[in-house]
Design goal:
The protein contains five helices and five strands. The chain is of the alpha+beta class.
């Protein structure tokens, strides 16, 4: 009996042709995270913001054979304490039938190498507190939570109101 060859996992940079696929997998991720009502991004959004005149982020596609099975999307940050850039992993996703095969670790390994090559001082991401499978996966690789920080976010109307207020001239007393 001849053993089957394992399928090859490839992590490659996303291209403009992948934007529909990225949007599809973001919706799948949002379903998993119980946040489907918040997933509004379209293929056009990804085309503009990953490949437009001022790209804000980068993405990679993971394939097993010719089958797309996951993606990662990240952007550059900067640490004033380290005086160096960092990478923030906004999303990492592996389709359910491909989990547990080392694909997530391959993605993170590729991003860690990219961060090191770029002189980054850190690779960071967030995880939902209830997502114990992901937490266990990250901690098994040596990642640790940053417990003394709380993430704050402005979106929608509060963001708009602050932007309007911020455009006013500050009042300075003589």
């Amino acid at each position: 009996m001849i053993a089957e060859e394992p399928e090859t996992c490839t992590v490659r940079p996303a291209t403009p042709d992948d934007c529909s696929l990225i949007a599809e997998m973001v919706r799948e991720l949002a379903e998993y995270e119980r946040l489907a009502d918040q997933a509004k991004a379209t293929a056009e959004d990804f085309l503009c913001h990953l490949f437009g005149d001022r790209p804000s982020a980068e993405a990679a596609i993971v394939e097993v054979g010719a089958q797309p099975v996951g993606f990662a999307l990240w952007f550059t940050t900067f640490s004033t304490f380290l005086g160096r850039p960092g990478m923030y992993l906004e999303d990492i996703y592996v389709r359910p039938t491909y989990r547990g095969r080392g694909i997530g670790k391959a993605i993170l390994g590729r991003l860690a190498r990219l961060a090191m090559d770029r002189g980054c001082g850190r690779l960071e991401w967030s995880v939902l507190n209830w997502n114990t499978p992901a937490i266990g996966f990250y901690e098994a690789m040596g990642a640790r939570p940053v417990g003394e920080w709380t993430v704050y976010r402005l979106t929608g109307e509060p963001l708009r109101l602050l932007a309007e207020a911020g455009s006013l001239e500050p009042k300075v007393s003589p």
